[in-house]
Design brief:
351 residues, mainly alpha, disordered N terminus
Length: 351
Protein backbone atom coordinates (compact mmCIF):
# COMPACT_ATOMS: atom_id res chain seq x y z
CA UNK A 1 0.00 0.00 0.00
CA UNK A 2 1.30 3.47 -0.84
CA UNK A 3 2.07 5.75 2.07
CA UNK A 4 0.17 9.06 2.37
CA UNK A 5 3.30 10.86 1.20
CA UNK A 6 3.60 8.75 -1.94
CA UNK A 7 -0.09 9.08 -2.61
CA UNK A 8 0.30 12.82 -2.42
CA UNK A 9 3.22 12.76 -4.81
CA UNK A 10 1.23 10.85 -7.38
CA UNK A 11 -1.87 13.00 -7.01
CA UNK A 12 -2.94 15.74 -9.38
CA UNK A 13 -3.78 19.24 -8.17
CA UNK A 14 -7.36 19.61 -6.96
CA UNK A 15 -8.54 22.72 -8.71
CA UNK A 16 -10.86 25.04 -6.86
CA UNK A 17 -14.22 25.80 -8.49
CA UNK A 18 -14.10 28.73 -10.87
CA UNK A 19 -16.82 31.12 -12.02
CA UNK A 20 -18.36 30.82 -15.46
CA UNK A 21 -15.98 31.82 -18.28
CA UNK A 22 -15.65 35.54 -18.88
CA UNK A 23 -15.21 37.05 -22.35
CA UNK A 24 -11.60 36.87 -23.48
CA UNK A 25 -11.59 40.63 -24.09
CA UNK A 26 -12.27 41.32 -20.42
CA UNK A 27 -8.62 42.23 -20.01
CA UNK A 28 -7.92 45.93 -19.32
CA UNK A 29 -11.29 46.91 -20.72
CA UNK A 30 -11.06 50.39 -19.20
CA UNK A 31 -7.53 50.98 -20.47
CA UNK A 32 -6.79 49.20 -23.77
CA UNK A 33 -8.89 49.83 -26.86
CA UNK A 34 -11.37 47.14 -27.83
CA UNK A 35 -9.67 46.38 -31.16
CA UNK A 36 -6.43 45.60 -29.37
CA UNK A 37 -8.20 43.51 -26.74
CA UNK A 38 -9.52 41.27 -29.50
CA UNK A 39 -6.04 39.74 -29.87
CA UNK A 40 -6.14 38.15 -26.41
CA UNK A 41 -7.61 34.82 -27.64
CA UNK A 42 -4.83 34.69 -30.24
CA UNK A 43 -2.11 35.39 -27.67
CA UNK A 44 -3.62 32.71 -25.49
CA UNK A 45 -3.60 30.20 -28.33
CA UNK A 46 -0.04 31.02 -29.39
CA UNK A 47 1.24 30.46 -25.87
CA UNK A 48 -0.76 27.26 -25.57
CA UNK A 49 0.52 25.88 -28.86
CA UNK A 50 4.10 26.61 -27.85
CA UNK A 51 3.94 24.93 -24.45
CA UNK A 52 4.26 21.37 -25.75
CA UNK A 53 6.14 22.08 -28.94
CA UNK A 54 9.52 20.51 -28.23
CA UNK A 55 11.37 21.25 -31.47
CA UNK A 56 13.47 23.27 -31.94
CA UNK A 57 14.82 23.21 -28.41
CA UNK A 58 17.45 25.10 -26.39
CA UNK A 59 16.30 23.96 -22.93
CA UNK A 60 19.30 24.23 -20.59
CA UNK A 61 17.67 22.16 -17.84
CA UNK A 62 16.98 19.31 -20.24
CA UNK A 63 20.54 19.49 -21.61
CA UNK A 64 22.08 19.28 -18.14
CA UNK A 65 19.75 16.80 -16.45
CA UNK A 66 18.35 14.79 -19.37
CA UNK A 67 14.73 15.81 -18.91
CA UNK A 68 12.46 18.66 -17.87
CA UNK A 69 8.79 19.11 -17.12
CA UNK A 70 8.91 22.43 -19.00
CA UNK A 71 10.28 21.23 -22.33
CA UNK A 72 8.25 23.19 -24.86
CA UNK A 73 8.33 26.81 -25.96
CA UNK A 74 11.89 26.56 -27.30
CA UNK A 75 13.53 27.29 -23.93
CA UNK A 76 12.89 26.68 -20.23
CA UNK A 77 12.24 30.26 -19.16
CA UNK A 78 9.81 31.01 -22.00
CA UNK A 79 7.90 27.85 -21.12
CA UNK A 80 7.65 28.86 -17.46
CA UNK A 81 6.58 32.39 -18.43
CA UNK A 82 3.85 30.89 -20.63
CA UNK A 83 2.72 28.52 -17.87
CA UNK A 84 2.40 31.42 -15.45
CA UNK A 85 0.55 33.55 -18.00
CA UNK A 86 -1.86 30.80 -19.04
CA UNK A 87 -2.64 29.69 -15.48
CA UNK A 88 -3.39 33.33 -14.65
CA UNK A 89 -5.57 33.67 -17.75
CA UNK A 90 -7.47 30.50 -16.88
CA UNK A 91 -8.15 31.79 -13.36
CA UNK A 92 -9.17 35.30 -14.42
CA UNK A 93 -11.35 34.17 -17.33
CA UNK A 94 -12.76 31.14 -15.51
CA UNK A 95 -11.51 28.94 -18.35
CA UNK A 96 -11.69 25.52 -16.71
CA UNK A 97 -10.83 23.68 -19.94
CA UNK A 98 -7.55 25.55 -20.24
CA UNK A 99 -6.82 25.13 -16.53
CA UNK A 100 -7.38 21.37 -16.67
CA UNK A 101 -5.28 21.03 -19.83
CA UNK A 102 -2.43 22.90 -18.16
CA UNK A 103 -2.64 20.92 -14.93
CA UNK A 104 -2.78 17.48 -16.53
CA UNK A 105 1.02 17.00 -16.74
CA UNK A 106 1.73 19.11 -13.65
CA UNK A 107 1.28 16.29 -11.16
CA UNK A 108 2.98 16.49 -7.80
CA UNK A 109 5.29 13.70 -8.91
CA UNK A 110 6.33 15.70 -11.99
CA UNK A 111 6.79 18.89 -9.98
CA UNK A 112 8.90 17.00 -7.44
CA UNK A 113 11.11 15.66 -10.24
CA UNK A 114 11.60 19.16 -11.65
CA UNK A 115 12.42 20.42 -8.18
CA UNK A 116 15.17 17.82 -8.00
CA UNK A 117 16.56 18.92 -11.36
CA UNK A 118 16.50 22.59 -10.35
CA UNK A 119 18.28 21.85 -7.08
CA UNK A 120 20.86 19.74 -8.91
CA UNK A 121 21.63 22.63 -11.26
CA UNK A 122 21.75 25.08 -8.34
CA UNK A 123 24.78 23.21 -6.99
CA UNK A 124 26.82 24.10 -10.05
CA UNK A 125 29.68 26.49 -9.51
CA UNK A 126 28.56 28.60 -12.45
CA UNK A 127 24.86 29.45 -12.92
CA UNK A 128 23.01 28.97 -16.16
CA UNK A 129 23.40 31.80 -18.70
CA UNK A 130 19.71 32.62 -18.18
CA UNK A 131 19.94 32.88 -14.36
CA UNK A 132 18.37 34.63 -12.42
CA UNK A 133 15.75 35.57 -15.04
CA UNK A 134 14.66 31.95 -15.51
CA UNK A 135 14.26 31.34 -11.76
CA UNK A 136 12.07 34.43 -11.50
CA UNK A 137 9.53 32.95 -13.91
CA UNK A 138 9.72 29.64 -12.05
CA UNK A 139 8.86 31.51 -8.84
CA UNK A 140 5.91 33.31 -10.43
CA UNK A 141 4.67 30.04 -11.93
CA UNK A 142 4.82 28.33 -8.52
CA UNK A 143 2.94 31.26 -6.97
CA UNK A 144 0.10 30.81 -9.46
CA UNK A 145 0.29 27.01 -9.34
CA UNK A 146 -0.36 27.12 -5.60
CA UNK A 147 -3.73 28.77 -6.31
CA UNK A 148 -4.94 25.63 -8.12
CA UNK A 149 -5.09 23.63 -4.87
CA UNK A 150 -7.84 23.56 -2.30
CA UNK A 151 -5.30 22.30 0.23
CA UNK A 152 -1.73 23.29 -0.55
CA UNK A 153 0.76 20.38 -0.53
CA UNK A 154 3.83 20.94 1.63
CA UNK A 155 6.08 19.89 -1.25
CA UNK A 156 4.83 22.69 -3.50
CA UNK A 157 5.23 25.32 -0.78
CA UNK A 158 8.72 24.01 -0.01
CA UNK A 159 9.73 24.28 -3.69
CA UNK A 160 8.46 27.86 -3.86
CA UNK A 161 10.34 28.78 -0.68
CA UNK A 162 13.56 27.26 -2.04
CA UNK A 163 13.39 29.31 -5.23
CA UNK A 164 12.39 32.49 -3.39
CA UNK A 165 15.21 32.10 -0.87
CA UNK A 166 17.74 31.36 -3.60
CA UNK A 167 16.81 34.56 -5.42
CA UNK A 168 16.73 36.69 -2.27
CA UNK A 169 20.16 35.42 -1.27
CA UNK A 170 21.48 36.12 -4.76
CA UNK A 171 20.10 39.66 -4.67
CA UNK A 172 21.73 40.36 -1.32
CA UNK A 173 25.08 38.85 -2.25
CA UNK A 174 25.45 40.13 -5.81
CA UNK A 175 26.64 43.53 -6.99
CA UNK A 176 24.24 46.09 -8.40
CA UNK A 177 24.41 46.52 -11.34
CA UNK A 178 25.01 42.83 -11.87
CA UNK A 179 28.43 41.92 -13.24
CA UNK A 180 27.80 40.33 -16.62
CA UNK A 181 31.26 39.96 -18.14
CA UNK A 182 34.50 41.89 -18.56
CA UNK A 183 33.25 42.96 -22.00
CA UNK A 184 30.09 44.57 -20.62
CA UNK A 185 30.40 48.26 -19.78
CA UNK A 186 31.08 48.71 -16.07
CA UNK A 187 28.27 50.48 -14.24
CA UNK A 188 25.70 49.72 -16.92
CA UNK A 189 22.41 48.09 -15.89
CA UNK A 190 21.71 45.01 -18.05
CA UNK A 191 18.29 44.66 -19.61
CA UNK A 192 18.59 40.91 -20.11
CA UNK A 193 19.00 37.63 -18.23
CA UNK A 194 21.55 38.77 -15.65
CA UNK A 195 19.55 41.78 -14.54
CA UNK A 196 19.62 42.24 -10.76
CA UNK A 197 16.84 44.78 -11.10
CA UNK A 198 14.43 42.56 -13.03
CA UNK A 199 15.07 39.70 -10.62
CA UNK A 200 14.13 41.98 -7.69
CA UNK A 201 10.95 42.89 -9.57
CA UNK A 202 10.02 39.26 -10.24
CA UNK A 203 10.49 38.32 -6.58
CA UNK A 204 8.42 41.29 -5.42
CA UNK A 205 5.67 40.43 -7.92
CA UNK A 206 5.51 36.89 -6.56
CA UNK A 207 4.07 38.10 -3.24
CA UNK A 208 6.96 36.54 -1.30
CA UNK A 209 6.16 34.37 1.71
CA UNK A 210 9.45 33.62 3.47
CA UNK A 211 10.13 35.23 6.81
CA UNK A 212 11.17 38.90 6.46
CA UNK A 213 11.18 38.61 2.65
CA UNK A 214 9.35 41.90 2.17
CA UNK A 215 11.64 43.56 4.70
CA UNK A 216 14.69 42.27 2.84
CA UNK A 217 13.35 43.49 -0.48
CA UNK A 218 12.50 46.89 1.01
CA UNK A 219 16.04 47.23 2.34
CA UNK A 220 17.46 46.41 -1.08
CA UNK A 221 15.11 48.90 -2.69
CA UNK A 222 16.09 51.65 -0.25
CA UNK A 223 19.83 50.98 -0.28
CA UNK A 224 20.25 50.19 -3.97
CA UNK A 225 17.36 50.91 -6.32
CA UNK A 226 16.35 54.27 -4.86
CA UNK A 227 19.94 55.52 -5.04
CA UNK A 228 20.23 54.34 -8.66
CA UNK A 229 16.88 55.69 -9.83
CA UNK A 230 18.25 58.64 -11.77
CA UNK A 231 20.89 56.48 -13.44
CA UNK A 232 18.26 53.92 -14.44
CA UNK A 233 16.07 56.61 -15.99
CA UNK A 234 19.05 58.04 -17.85
CA UNK A 235 20.05 54.73 -19.50
CA UNK A 236 17.85 55.33 -22.53
CA UNK A 237 20.12 53.73 -25.14
CA UNK A 238 19.55 49.93 -25.08
CA UNK A 239 22.42 47.51 -25.25
CA UNK A 240 22.14 45.08 -28.22
CA UNK A 241 21.55 42.23 -25.73
CA UNK A 242 18.67 44.00 -23.96
CA UNK A 243 15.17 42.58 -24.27
CA UNK A 244 13.51 44.92 -21.80
CA UNK A 245 13.80 48.68 -21.45
CA UNK A 246 15.77 49.56 -18.32
CA UNK A 247 14.21 53.05 -17.80
CA UNK A 248 10.80 51.35 -17.58
CA UNK A 249 11.74 49.66 -14.32
CA UNK A 250 11.41 52.54 -11.81
CA UNK A 251 7.78 53.09 -12.87
CA UNK A 252 7.02 49.36 -12.69
CA UNK A 253 8.63 49.10 -9.26
CA UNK A 254 6.80 52.19 -7.99
CA UNK A 255 3.47 50.55 -8.94
CA UNK A 256 4.08 47.63 -6.54
CA UNK A 257 6.44 49.18 -3.95
CA UNK A 258 6.15 52.99 -4.06
CA UNK A 259 9.28 55.05 -3.63
CA UNK A 260 9.22 57.77 -1.01
CA UNK A 261 8.40 61.20 -2.41
CA UNK A 262 7.47 61.79 -6.02
CA UNK A 263 6.82 59.02 -8.50
CA UNK A 264 9.69 58.41 -10.93
CA UNK A 265 9.53 60.09 -14.30
CA UNK A 266 7.83 58.11 -17.03
CA UNK A 267 10.46 57.68 -19.74
CA UNK A 268 8.97 56.78 -23.10
CA UNK A 269 11.28 56.93 -26.11
CA UNK A 270 10.16 58.51 -29.34
CA UNK A 271 8.61 56.14 -31.84
CA UNK A 272 11.05 54.79 -34.39
CA UNK A 273 10.24 52.48 -37.30
CA UNK A 274 9.71 48.86 -36.34
CA UNK A 275 12.28 46.48 -37.88
CA UNK A 276 11.46 45.27 -41.36
CA UNK A 277 12.35 41.74 -40.23
CA UNK A 278 14.09 40.03 -37.33
CA UNK A 279 16.27 36.97 -36.82
CA UNK A 280 17.60 35.18 -33.76
CA UNK A 281 20.60 37.51 -33.92
CA UNK A 282 18.61 40.72 -33.42
CA UNK A 283 15.16 39.67 -32.16
CA UNK A 284 15.64 41.08 -28.65
CA UNK A 285 14.73 44.49 -30.04
CA UNK A 286 11.10 43.32 -30.00
CA UNK A 287 11.20 42.78 -26.25
CA UNK A 288 12.56 46.27 -25.78
CA UNK A 289 9.79 47.62 -28.01
CA UNK A 290 7.02 45.83 -26.11
CA UNK A 291 8.49 46.75 -22.74
CA UNK A 292 8.20 50.43 -23.69
CA UNK A 293 4.48 49.78 -23.12
CA UNK A 294 4.80 48.23 -19.66
CA UNK A 295 5.19 51.45 -17.63
CA UNK A 296 2.51 53.07 -19.78
CA UNK A 297 0.18 50.19 -18.90
CA UNK A 298 0.89 50.57 -15.18
CA UNK A 299 0.33 54.32 -15.25
CA UNK A 300 -2.76 54.01 -17.45
CA UNK A 301 -4.30 51.58 -14.96
CA UNK A 302 -3.67 54.18 -12.25
CA UNK A 303 -5.71 56.72 -14.25
CA UNK A 304 -3.10 58.57 -16.31
CA UNK A 305 -5.01 59.53 -19.48
CA UNK A 306 -1.90 60.58 -21.39
CA UNK A 307 -0.27 57.23 -20.65
CA UNK A 308 -3.44 55.48 -21.78
CA UNK A 309 -3.44 57.31 -25.11
CA UNK A 310 0.23 56.58 -25.72
CA UNK A 311 -0.18 52.94 -24.72
CA UNK A 312 -2.97 52.44 -27.24
CA UNK A 313 -1.02 54.20 -29.97
CA UNK A 314 1.95 51.89 -29.46
CA UNK A 315 -0.17 48.78 -28.99
CA UNK A 316 -2.09 49.38 -32.23
CA UNK A 317 1.10 49.97 -34.17
CA UNK A 318 2.82 46.83 -32.88
CA UNK A 319 -0.15 44.48 -33.24
CA UNK A 320 -0.57 45.54 -36.87
CA UNK A 321 2.76 43.79 -37.59
CA UNK A 322 1.71 40.17 -37.07
CA UNK A 323 5.05 38.95 -38.36
CA UNK A 324 6.60 40.38 -35.19
CA UNK A 325 4.43 38.48 -32.72
CA UNK A 326 2.30 35.78 -34.35
CA UNK A 327 4.20 33.95 -37.08
CA UNK A 328 7.72 32.49 -36.71
CA UNK A 329 7.88 30.17 -33.68
CA UNK A 330 11.66 29.96 -33.31
CA UNK A 331 12.26 33.69 -33.55
CA UNK A 332 9.04 35.28 -32.31
CA UNK A 333 6.06 33.30 -31.04
CA UNK A 334 7.85 31.29 -28.35
CA UNK A 335 8.23 34.49 -26.27
CA UNK A 336 6.76 37.72 -27.68
CA UNK A 337 3.12 36.72 -26.90
CA UNK A 338 4.13 36.44 -23.22
CA UNK A 339 5.59 39.95 -23.32
CA UNK A 340 2.42 41.31 -24.92
CA UNK A 341 0.22 39.50 -22.40
CA UNK A 342 2.21 41.07 -19.57
CA UNK A 343 1.21 44.46 -20.97
CA UNK A 344 -2.47 43.50 -20.70
CA UNK A 345 -1.90 42.15 -17.19
CA UNK A 346 -0.25 45.35 -16.02
CA UNK A 347 -2.97 47.47 -17.61
CA UNK A 348 -5.58 45.37 -15.79
CA UNK A 349 -3.94 45.94 -12.42
CA UNK A 350 -2.06 42.62 -12.15
CA UNK A 351 -5.05 40.34 -11.34
Amino acid sequence: MLSPTLLLLFASPQATPEPAPAPANVWAKDVIAEDARQVMPRLKQLMREGLRRTEPDTNFVKRLTGDSLFQGSYDWHSNLFAHWALLTIARVEGDTELRDWLLEPLTLEAIAAERGRVNEIAKRERPLPTFPYDQGWLLLFLTEYEKTFEELPEEVRAFRLEVETRLLDWLENSPFPAQVSSRFEKGRYPGFYRSWLFSWYQVRLSQPISEKALERLATLQRERITLARDALLAQTEPHPFDFFYVPAMPTLIHAIAPFEGEAPALITPALTPLPEQVSLRDVHVLGTEVSHMWPLAARAHAGDTDAKAELNRRMTRFLAREDLWAEDFTVVTHWVPQFLWLTFWLADGRP
